[in-house]
Amino acid sequence: IRYTLEEVGIGTEGAKVADTETRAEYDRLVKEKSFVPDPLNTSQEMRNETKLPEMWYLRTLTVPDEATGKKVIEGLRIKPDLGVAATGLGANPQQAQQIMVETPVAREKLAQQLPVLEKELQTVSAGQYTQKPIQVTMRNPQDPPNAPPRTSFLVVQFVRKEPAYDFKYEEVQPVLELRLLSIKHKDWIAHKEQEMAKFTEDLVKKDGIKINLKQYQSLLDTFIKQMATQHLPGAPGGTMSSPTATPPPSTPPPASNPGAAPR
Question: Which CATH code of 3.10.50.40, 3.90.850.10, 3.40.50.300, 1.10.3720.10 fits the domain covering 54-163?
């Protein structure tokens, strides 16, 4: 967070956000769901920084059809090991080991994307398996856009869950401040790169960058100078105008597993 604050400070010319505005944003978000529209891209959702969503940790085995799924579930009653079940379906040791890796899933996202599975898992205790194979129909991101959705069956182990948590204001104040600054200064990244490029170029002109190891001395011309030049105003690719520092306002303004935890 501290490093990002330094970057944002450079990109916004040291702009600040009033504490009253940050608190107002906290009060608004803490009443919302765990995932909210991204103000920088309203077609996508972002995690609500004031909350940790309820997380379910799952192991999932995809089976070719419902009949196979039922046989797998019967076998799990005798030997409750999803990796062994996967091996019985032809999985190699590496694939079986991968199936045993717990996948963190936000319950709220799972309810949106696979409501049938979310409803079924509500009846399953920690460590247990779904009582029936779950049919899901989804589009594979690797398929062509016009390809029909694929139907598959899942046998899922509900490993454990972690409850939802609402952060206190003091815990998320720096994060909220960063987001508000990013909204006010949408070009802060480009401006930060330009400022760093100017700083680097000045050092190069003053012969202020020294590389003592001979095998790396060529990097000054092949990498450092080029990196600085490509972000300077007037460089190919266009430039952003320098944002003007604004005083803090005195009043607030009006991520292949379904539901997987965001990065």
Answer: 3.10.50.40
